[in-house]
Design a protein that fits this description.
It is a single chain. This protein is α+β, with helices and mostly antiparallel strands. It has three domains: 4-177, no CATH class; 205-280, PGBD-like superfamily/PGBD (Muramoyl-pentapeptide Carboxypeptidase, domain 1, Orthogonal Bundle); 303-355 and 419-508, L,D-transpeptidase catalytic domain-like. The protein has 19 helices and 18 strands. The strands form four sheets. An eight-stranded mixed barrel has the order 4-5-6-15-13-12-7-16. The chain has a four-stranded antiparallel sheet with strand order 8-11-9-10. It has a two-stranded antiparallel ribbon with strand order 1-2. The longest helix is centred in the N-terminal third of the chain and has 24 residues, at 115-138. It is globular.
Length: 539
């Protein structure tokens, strides 16, 4: 932002503009003083520092306007200023802090008739709008500082140009409405924030104590009535309320509903894990919602009408067509120490019956130790060895290699696994060129999809239903139908299919979100990214 030392000089310049309109106010002001102010702006406000681009834009705006104020006229404050103040007052509904926008100082100056104070008010309103715009469009925290694994593209509009235009053409209110993320998921999560804050104001929900007992259908226990109240407050218990201590069918249904929306095993029993999640305080859930509202603001303003969305915290992939989920499946993501980054990219081609060119890092960590123990591993896994030199690729006999005497930096070979049932990429790979070498793919390890927490890969995203996704994508491609896809898969021959209709892919990390059926979902923070965000939001 503009250096504080510069504010009085810009304010004085705006004051001089008022003097032009009302000469009697300041007859003593001279042209040399105006030139002094302009000289100061050019030498200080335009000086290079952390936010010098904003300072340059601000100085240029006022110079272009001959230092006339933006929000104020001789007749008084523009109505749009009060629209902005209303939005700043309501910024808490986005999880933002109204105090960040210097509202107290704005209130103090709003009724003043002092010209210099009004000039300061003009600058405060510009600063408040700028900060509010940034907070809604790109977040109040920096992904680079808070989450080094977040690379989702952001968009920021040209502030001063758009602001001046909208004030002049009467579209300022529309401009304000377009600042927050436009996806319905963001709107639904804001509504959930309001609901949970209301619950907090009423005291939250009761803590359940089962005295170490797992509550099962048919059990009688003194904690059961309180459990009904707890679940009713979050709309999980939807049957007519009963004070019975019996764990009846209605309560089983409510527990299952609660377990499903928290990613728990949906067995209708209240064991230690379910009990711990039931007893998470409402304040903690509110913080979790705030964290994920901020992640929404870190992302694109809106998603494309047709796209693939991978929510890593939910271990799920959805294909979205015009706000409708047309395909959904479980996914496996990176291990915590090889965590999958959040980013956006475009799916450009499919590889049916792919090779797997094993990255050196994976080769050294996982594959070569197995080869050193038993070279038959290469044959069983259909892994071949190549050397690349002068654009020539030569296959190497593994028996000719001394597997004990090289490290990752000096590993001169490429390991490639042929297509087949043991191939780590399975029968199809979905390629979206990116700097992380991350892609979506099939896997022969189908049993891992039965786990609730699925952090088993080296970073790529493994798919529960890869063939369904391939058919779904190729259905939109000319010349492809299910029969042709099946024949290509059964042939065992590698084929690259370049898409004529590339598909955007967004990998996100949401530990709280609201489904399209208005069900609020929470998930564990498997990558431990929420705590860093909470600390940043509190600071």
């Amino acid at each position: 932002m503009v250096k504080k030392t510069g504010y009085p000089f810009i304010a004085l310049a705006i004051f001089l503009a008022f003097c032009t309109a009302v000469p009697s106010i300041c007859a003593a002001v001279t042209i040399s003083t105006r030139e002094l102010v302009r000289s100061y702006i050019e030498s200080h406000i335009l000086a290079t520092e952390a936010d010098h681009l904003w300072q340059a834009d601000l100085a240029q705006l006022y110079a272009k306007r001959d230092y006339q104020p933006l929000w104020l006229t001789i007749d008084g404050i523009r109505p749009e200023a009060f629209l902005l103040i209303e939005r700043l007052e309501a910024s808490n509904s986005h999880g933002l802090d109204p105090a960040d926008y210097q509202l107290a100082k704005i209130y103090e100056l709003i009724d003043t008739v002092d010209v210099v104070a009004r000039a300061e008010l003009d600058m405060l309103l510009i600063k408040a709008f700028r900060l509010y715009r940034d907070d809604l469009q790109t977040g109040s925290t920096s992904p680079r500082d808070v989450d080094p694994k977040w690379f989702v593209a952001q968009h920021r509009s040209d502030l001063l140009t758009s602001l001046e235009e909208t004030l002049n053409n009467g579209t300022f209110l529309t401009n304000l409405d377009q600042l927050p993320p436009q996806g319905p998921g963001y709107v639904r999560l804001r509504s959930a924030l309001n609901h949970y804050r209301q619950l907090q104001e009423k005291g939250g929900w009761p803590r359940i104590d089962t005295h170490g007992q797992t509550l099962k259908p048919g059990d009688k226990h003194p904690a059961v009535p309180l459990l009904r109240i707890r679940l009713a407050l979050t709309d999980d218990y939807r049957s007519p309320f009963a004070f019975s201590k019996t764990f009846d069918a209605a309560l089983v249904e409510a527990v299952i509903r609660f377990q499903n929306r928290h990613g728990l095993k949906a067995d209708g029993r209240v064991g230690p894990r379910t009990l711990a999640v039931l007893n998470v305080p409402v304040a903690q859930r509110i913080e979790q919602i705030l964290v994920n509202l901020e992640r929404w603001r870190w992302g694109p303003s809106r998603f494309e009408p047709r796209h693939i969305l991978v929510n890593m915290a939910a271990f799920r992939l959805d294909v979205i067509d015009n706000e409708q989920r047309t395909l959904s499946m479980k996914v496996i993501i990176g291990k915590p120490y090889r965590s999958t980054p959040a980013f956006s990219q475009t799916l450009t081609h499919l590889v049916i019956n792919p090779y797997w060119n094993i990255p050196n890092s994976i080769a050294m960590r996982d594959v070569i130790p197995r080869i050193r123990r038993n070279q038959e591993y290469l044959t069983r896994q259909k892994i071949r060895i190549f050397r690349t030199s002068e654009n020539q690729v030569t296959e190497i006999d593994p028996a000719s290699i001394d597997w004990q005497n090289f490290d990752q930096a000096g590993f001169p070979f490429m390991l490639r696994q042929d297509p087949g049932p043991r191939n780590a990429l399975g029968r199809v790979k979905f390629a979206m060129p990116n700097r992380f070498s991350i892609y979506l793919h099939d896997t022969p390890q189908r049993h891992l999809f039965q786990r609730k927490v699925r952090t088993f890969s080296s970073g790529c995203v493994r798919l529960e239903k890869p063939l369904e996704l391939a058919r779904h994508i190729l259905w939109h491609e000319p010349g492809w139908d299910n029969g042709k896809v099946n024949r290509q898969l059964e042939s065992s021959h590698r084929r690259v299919v370049k898409l004529q209709n590339p598909l955007p892919v967004h990998l996100v990390y949401w530990t709280a979100w609201v489904d399209r059926d208005n069900t609020l979902q929470f998930r564990d923070d498997v990558y431990r990214r929420d705590e860093l965000m909470r600390q940043a939001l509190r600071s």
